[in-house]
Each structure stands twice: as structure tokens, then as C-alpha cells.
Amino acid sequence: MADDLRPTGSTVVAAALALFAEHGYEQTSVEQIAQSAGVSRSTFFRQFGGKDDVVFADHELLLDRLRAYLSEAHENPWAAVCEASVQIYRHFASDPEIARRRYAVVRQVPSLRDREIVTVFRYERAFDEYLRRSVPGLDPVDAVAFAAAVTAVHNHVLRRLLRGSTRVPAAVLETAYDELLRRFGVHPDPEPAADDDIVVATFPRRMPPAEVARRLGALRD
Predict the structure, then answer these.
(1) Do residues 15 and 101 lie in contact, with contact meaning Cβ atoms separated by under 8 Å?
(2) pLDDT of residue 8
(3) pLDDT at 201
(4) Distance from C-alpha of 82 to C-alpha of 146, rounded to nearest angstrom
(5) CA dist 57 → 4, 73, 109 (Å)
(6) 158: which of 148, 151, 184, 216 lies 20 to 30 Å off by Cα?
(7) What is the predicted pLDDT for the residue at 101?
(8) Which residues are CB-contacts of 178 (< 8 A; sequence separation ≥ 6)?
(9) Which positions does the record tag as DNA-binding (predicted)?
(10) Would you call 177 helix, strand, or coil by DSSP?
(11) In angstroms, what is the C-alpha Rg of the chain?
């Protein structure tokens, strides 16, 4: 999922975040942002609905790319959810200073914090809905639990990046997801047989029944 924000849009976002950091969110006007970015007021409103949309512009882009990625066929839906989350993390980690400026602005403005909560839920819901589509018969509790766990782990690692002064590579998140996949019993790589495995193939008992059925169906194909 390559970064495809238009250059003008990226410039406006960077200019807005710099002004918010220097003067405060409420004290910064659209006119100031447009002037700093070298665009007209009308151009600003063509690309963004308002100041809050500038702050969350990357998220709207990423949610669109996330849905496109999850609309493709994937051999292991659970791993696909993790990979999608890693790609989102790579976007923010590619420019940690911009990400930290955005984080600082959001923390200071209650309305932005509320919108962030809703935005995080939109990622989680996209994961949840994808799993239910991709694993027929999946217990909704298993879909919700995995989607919530992926989102929580992502946010934990991202906060380490945002609150620190050093880079936190995507490998940290990938390692965490590797463990998460094993905890849910849905890792694409087989595990050594255990005493409590379901005796049909080597499937851990903790694996959701719908995922067992999906994998058995794949073996028959």
C-alpha cells in the first residue's frame, strides 16, 4: 500500500500541523494554513472540509487503502489483517516527526480526541467485517476479539513511536502479531503437535471452529 497523498495535500497537512504546534489548533485559521502551504483558500476546501479533516487526512486515505487490500483474496485471512495493520503502521513510521506533531495536536483538543476514538473504531470494524466475510461460520465473538486485539497491539506500538524520540521499526509490530496469531491458533505456519490439539489435523484447540472448517475445506480443494 504505497503512499499516494497528492503533493499539494501533503504540503497542506505539513503546514497545518506546523502552525497548530506553533500557535495552537483553535488559534490557527484556514487562511493561515492556505497561505503557509502556498495554496488558495478554495483549493484548501476542495481537498479538505475543515481544519479537523487536515489532521485526519492520512486516516481517510489509509482506510480506503485498507478496504481495497482486504477486498483481495488472501490465503490466511487472519494474517492478512495483521499485514494490513503493519502497512498502516509503516505509513506513520515513515515520517515520525509529522506523526508526532499530529499526536500532540490531537491530545490537546477534545473534539479531535473524540474523532480519533471513532477513527480507531473504523479500523477495528473493517477488520471485524473482513474476518466474518472471509471465514464462513466464524463466531462473531472470535472476529471481534481478534480485530480488537490487532487494533490494540497496533496502537500500543504506535504510541511507543509517537511518545518517544527514536524510530520504532515495523519489525516490532510484526513480532507482536506473530505471537498474537499463535495465541489465537491461526498462525499460517504449523505448530508442533500438543496434547490438547483437535485430532483431525494439527489444529490447536484454541483455534476458532470456523477457522478449522476453513482450513479443512482448503485441504479438500
Answers:
(1) no
(2) 47
(3) 62
(4) 10
(5) 12, 27, 17
(6) 184
(7) 92
(8) 187
(9) 29-48
(10) helix
(11) 20
The pLDDT value given to residue 193: 62
Cα–Cα separations (whole angstroms), residue 156 to 116, 127, 153, 177, 221 = 15, 17, 5, 12, 39
Could you tell me the three cell numbers for 199? 485430532
Among 29, 9, 5, 4, CA closest to 19: 29
Cell triple for 198: 483437535
* Predicted TM-score (pTM) of this structure: 0.80
Q: Tell me, what amino acid is at 47? A: Q
Residues of the chain scoring pLDDT < 70: 1-8, 191-201, 219-221
Owner of C-alpha cell 480526541: 113
C-alpha cell at 46: 476542495
* Residue 142 to residue 175: CA distance in whole angstroms: 21
pLDDT score of 60: 87
CB 214 within 8 A of CB 135: yes
Judge residue 135's burial from the number of C-beta atoms within 10 Å of its C-beta, 0-12 exposed, 13-18 middle, 19 or more buried: buried
CA separation (Å) from 39 to 8, 20, 32, 45? 8, 17, 10, 10
Type and span of the H or E element at 202:
strand 202-203
Angle at which helix 57-70 crosses helix 110-134, to 10 degrees, equals 0
